[in-house]
Specification:
Layout (H helix, E strand, L loop, with lengths): L1 E14 L2 E6 L2 E7 L6 H13 L1 E4 L5 E4 H4 L2 E6 L21 H17 L5 E3 L7 E15 L3
Helix pairs in contact: 1-3
Length: about 150
């Protein structure tokens, strides 16, 4: 499992010219799953996301988490994170988890962030062509990967 975390001033998801989700300050997550990912990886990265300290404290140090700031998350399923271009210029997505299982894990990540960490977490639309808008703050972008 891999998550690209972008600290944002705002982010939104539009599908077919219809606004699906929108947040103000917080995180835009691009979430990808690979073969053999399970709830273990989801729990591990949910904890990392909730406790990641990439917001400034009063001294300007990256020392506050999204929990400290009471901000929101927009989570977008992104199987292309596992695109492999090692054998050419056209990505292969064979390392990406099959869609049914990926959807289950994606929804479970949202459930954990919402219910166990009390972070208002909104989603895009799994499997759809989405237009993602964001204003990256910093910019601060961190890549998190599970150990599995």
């Amino acid at each position: 499992m891999k998550v690209i975390v972008q600290r944002v001033n705002s982010a939104s998801c539009t599908v077919n010219n219809k606004l699906i989700s929108k947040i103000k300050k917080g995180y835009l997550l691009l979430v990808g799953f690979t073969q053999n990912d399970s709830i273990k990886e989801v729990n591990y990265l949910a904890k990392k996301i909730a406790n990641l300290r990439i917001f400034e404290d009063d001294l300007g140090k990256l020392n506050r988490s999204i929990l400290d700031m009471n901000y929101e998350i927009l989570s977008i399923s992104q199987f292309t994170i596992y695109g492999d271009t090692s054998k050419g210029n056209r990505p292969s997505f064979t390392k990406a988890l099959e869609p049914k299982k990926a959807l289950e894990l994606y929804l479970e990540l949202t459930n954990i962030l919402n219910n166990e960490y009390n972070i208002n977490t909104l989603n895009g639309v799994f499997g759809e062509h989405m237009n993602i808008g964001l204003i990256n703050d910093g910019p601060v972008t961190i890549i998190l990967e599970s150990k599995g």
